Amino acid sequence: MTGHAMGRTQAAATLAAALLVALPASAQVDLGTEEQRAAGKVVYDKYCGQCHGDTGDGNGYATPRVRPKPRDFTTGKYKFRTTPNGMLPTDDDLRRIIEIGAPYTSMPGWPNLTSAEIQNVIYYIKSFSPDFENPDRYAEPIEIPRPLESTEESIARGRVLYEEQACGACHGEVGRGDGASAPTLVNDKGDPIRAADLTQRWTYRGGPTKEDIYRTFSTGLNGTPMPSYADSLEVEDRQHLVNYVYSLGDGDDPNYGTLITAVYSDEPIDLQDGESLDALFESAPMTRFPLVGQITEPGRNFFPPVTSIEAQAVYNRDEIAFRVRWHDLRADTSGRNNPSLEVPMWDEDNGIGGDESDDGGDSDDFFGDFGGEEAPAEDDFFGDSGDDFFGDGGDDFFGTADAGAGGAEFSDAVALQFPASLAPAESPELKPYFLYGDAQNPVDLWFVNLTYGVADTFRGRGSDAIEPTEADIVEAVTSYDQGAWTVTYKRRRSSRAGVSFAEEQYTPVAFSVWDGFNRERGNKRALSSWFYVYTEPSVEQAVAGPVLRAALIVLAIELLVVFLVRRRARQQAAGEGTSGASLTATEAPAV
Amino acid sequence: MWGLNLPVVLALAAIGGVLAWRRANTLVWLLYTLGALWAFFRFGFAVPIPQSVATIYLGITGLALVCYASSSRERLAETVQPIKRLILEPRYRLALAGLLVALPALAAYNVYADLTVPLEAPGFGREVHPPPPTEMTVHDETIDMATAENPYLHYKHDDPELYAKHLENGRRVYYENCFWCHGDGMGGDGMFAHGLNPVPSNFNDVGTLPILQSSFVQWRIAKGAPGLPASGTPWDSAMPAWEKFLTNEEMWDVNLFIYDFNGYEPRALGQH
CA of A191, closest CA in chain B: separation in Å? Predict the structure, then answer.
């Protein structure tokens, strides 16, 4: 595209705009000057082309390995707009996303670009699509009213609307992104797309505020199944709906922590008695930990759908129990899984059903040798032997959970990871390699394949050296409820071969989660770095005693000083004339 | 400026000014010195200095002040005078009573705050740039760490076109493999960085690439975290050993690219 041609079309467009007098000033075609677009190209080529493609077609180097994929600027379709459904975004809309990015996607914010640089890159981006020359595609931004207060009535009204409008069909009844049609959703390009988990507001790509939410479902996200409700809902109803969606959220911030505090209880820990178990965990603080894709060892997972896990722990005299919870769009409980299932190289890029063959060229030259391998048989690897074991016991947990849609080849799974032994006193920083341990320092995995719902234990000495162990018996119960998996583990506190949980001990712990729907298995998983479990002392540390003692000691010193000074003064008054300066040596520092 | 919290520093100086103007006596000056120092350590820096270090400084200063106050009889008498008056003169009775209550309360609060600090996971330091081995072998090629240089760097002057080719290949490698951790703009802030500890290196930082030889960077790329000595806590770092995924040329190319993107040159050989 030459700047010259551009200039001419621009002139034509401006003319057209001038003829369509109705068009308000703010919606006029503004494609910048040739210099501005040229300056924008420089910025784009350095910072944007590797994802959005050097020609703006969304096919950059990173594209096969990110999801959602970078926007294809040649289509003129934009998600995050203040303009009505199907229209082009305003420059301010584009500026907003470039400045702050879309959280939990590969689209980062670019706070270091100057305002002028951003404006120039916006002009350059617009030049990729002829739509920006067409005045018919422009429209005034919608008006975003001030949010209503989140009263109970407003939220209740919003809830009714949420049900009437069937938001739950995609987002799930309580908003965990687990609606019945969630597994089937694809975007305009046929790539799988997930309905947002409305309970995790910090992951909203278009922003977490009430105004953002209002904008999202008023204007819709073009190119995705997320529709616009501008026509079907009155302004006020939309405001109530905002309040309901907002009320589903777990806060603005994930508040990621680094420590599970295991609390002591006198009660027995009975995994089969759900109610008493829930009551036990009620008293234990819950910590949320970030999960990221495993991209260090072969079998990489570039776009894990699960981005965090919550965990808590309780213990009694003999046993310790852990409970973890995470969100998953459906329970995959029919496939296989285990920590060492092989992941062929070609499967690193592709998620389920992703029609990414057209992207193949980009990455395949890279892994050329592996491209030919066929998938199926070799996955068996570790085998059924480990799993079959428990075949019957666990199944009834799930009777109804399997949401169908064919069922995935791989099942959902979770693992807790502990070092096989604690660090020696002389080097407390020592830990096993956080990716399944290493030869010198192995780890123990408490692995639950959610097809069976029982815990298998593995010892890891590195990603290619994982073996089942039976040194300790770990029990587990699992449940899937409206998009949330909950797995509760129990083991004796003392172990014959692994780590024992003594009181007041910091024990390293790490997590792995597999989403069968995303074809995760083996190394292809979401994982965490090392964090810690602290077993809180069983007898509560008294605070009153030491506090009182400190106060009394200080008071006693004060009184002593006052007493001494006064006595000396009296003596002095009595025996006039003796030297007065020597009395203070002991007293001065005390005050 | 120098990581100082200017408003705090200015406020402390202002208080000192007022004291000088009112010709405060020695005791007030001593108390001011200790108090101001404490406030300076606690609030005066953008990144507060560790409690334990501050305590040591304060202890030393306290000792010095005691020495100063007791350096002559007159000074000692002058210093203690206000205390004696507070204790002895009837008109200060109320103030004395207040002090008798306030100090124990302060001590009690301190102990309480100490006992109820929220628990924290233990943290350990690590050596960010530990000494590399003297030589390393990658894909059957052995390089001497002291003398090896990026074999494509000289194209920058000798053959710009070829140089550009290597750079472009490095760009491909980076955006197919590295940006999740090190970030799109190489600020160490990729989309997975928040879940990693230690955090991925920030290549924009003048304290990273420019102070390293390209052979060091190549070592880190090829051998990753598992190649680190124990002082670098290899068990915590997610930095992959790229020899598992990339050819030697690809690794030198991405090495070239991360320098070029940030406008840095590797530290020259033999320069310390």
Answer: 19
Q: Which pairs count as long-range contacts for A582-585, CB under 8 Å and 24+ apart, including other chains?
A: A584/B76, A584/B77, A584/B80, A584/B83, A584/B84, A585/B70
A585 contacts on B by Cβ (under 8 Å): 70
Q: Do residues A225 and A329 touch, judged by C-beta distance below 8 A?
A: no
* Contact between residue A54 and residue A26 where contact means Cβ atoms under 8 Å apart: no
For testing the chain A interface, which of B184, B194, B245 should be mutated: the one with the most A CBs within 10 Å?
B184
- Which residues from A are below 8 Å from B197, CB to CB? 529-530
Q: What is the CA radius of gyration of chain A?
A: 31
Q: Name the residue among A533, A490, A498, A505 with its Cα closest to residue A320.
A: A490
- Confidence band for A129, pLDDT divided at 50, 70 and 90: very high
Q: Please give the radius of gyration of chain B, using alpha carbons only, rounded to the nearest integer.
A: 29
pLDDT at residue B138 above 70? yes
Closest chain B C-alpha to A122 CA, distance in angstroms: 18
Which of A78-82, A87-91, A193-197, B36-40 is least confident?
B36-40
| Cα angle for residues A568, A571, A577 (degrees, 5° grid) | 105
Report residue A464 CA to chain centroid gap. 27
Find the Cα–Cα–Cα–Cα dihedral A99, A103, A105, A110, rounded to 10°: 20
Measured between CA atoms, the residue of chain A closest to residue B31 is A591
Cβ–Cβ contact A440 with B under 8 A: no
- For chain B, the three-class secondary structure string (H helix, E strand, C coil) is CCCECHHHHHHHHHHHHHHHHCCCCHHHHHHHHHHHHHHHHHHCECCCCCHHHHHHHHHHHHHHHHHHHCCCHHHHHHHHHHHHHHHHCHHHHHHHHHHHHHHHHHHHHHHHHHHCCCCCCCCCCCCCCCCCCCEEEECCEEEECCCCCCCCCCHHHHCHHHHHHHHHHHHHHHHHHCHHHHCCCCCCCCCCHHHCCCCCCCCCCCCCHHHCCHHHHHHHHHHCHHHCCHHHCCCCCCCCCHHHCCCHHHHHHHHHHHHHHHCCCCCCCCCC
Strands A413-419 and A443-449, bridge-based pairing: antiparallel
Contact B103 A431 (CB under 8 A): no
Burial of A48 (0-12, 13-18, 19+ CB in 10 A): buried
User: Would the pLDDT of A23 be above 90?
Assistant: no
Amino acid at residue number A213: I
Chain B residues closer than 8 Å to A529 by CB: 195-197, 236, 238
Cα–Cα dist A63/A70, whole Å: 7
pTM above 0.90, yes or no: no
Could B171 and A61 be called an inter-chain contact, meaning their C-beta atoms sit closer than 8 Å? yes
Contact A106 B179 (CB under 8 A): yes
pLDDT in tens, A224-234: 999 999 999 99
Residues A50/B171, Cβ–Cβ less than 8 Å: yes
Residue pair A188/A77 in contact by the 8 Å Cβ criterion: yes
For a pLDDT cut of 70, what percent of chain A falls above it?
83
Q: How far apart are CA A506 and CA A300, in angstroms?
A: 30
Give the pLDDT band (50/70/90) at residue A1: very low
How far is A154 from B100, CA to CA, in rounded Å? 55
Selecting from B77, B185, B238 the residue whose C-beta is nearest the C-beta of A296 gives: B238
A12 to A95, A120, A489: CA distances (angstroms): 26, 21, 69
ipTM of predicted complex? 0.81
